[in-house]
Write a structure and sequence with these properties.
There is one protein chain. Mean pLDDT is about 80; it is low at about 85-95. The protein has 7 helices and no strands. It is globular and about 50 Å long. By secondary structure, the chain is mostly helical.
Length: about 170
Amino acid sequence: MLQLDTVCIMEQFKKIYSEYKHRVYFFVRKYVRQETDVEDIVQDIFVHLWKHLDKADSPSAVEAIIFKASKQEISNFYRRNKILFVSSEENIIPENADDISDEVSAQEQMKKVEVLLDKLPMKTKELLLRHTTQNISYSKLADEHKVSKTAIGKQINKALDFLKINLQ
């Protein structure tokens, strides 16, 4: 019986992997440039999914796990690289001074993001915030606003591009 359950889980995982591998890859690729880093992150995402597959009772739950894990793994990647970069510096900054400057920098960045979000059209801002903060899928947003998933994707991508360009 145990082996049958394992086979079913493996088949379910294979199906999910084949359905999402390209979407996850291109999602990560938007934020990470090195091919090997992208591959490592995608692998970590699917390992995370494998560990938490038992909690996924519907396709939307699977998608939520995958893209939440994607965001977390990308954040972890940047956090690890920053730590490695700082540790390779010759000048050593006291730990608490670094924490304070990081906090001030994060607050300044948040203020910039808030100002930029206010410059977006209200509908675009709402779509972006609901998608990124509440993990609402393009499909659900499209249904609510009676437009296509492609239209939702274009609006959100335009907003993200706007933010990226203006935050650099």
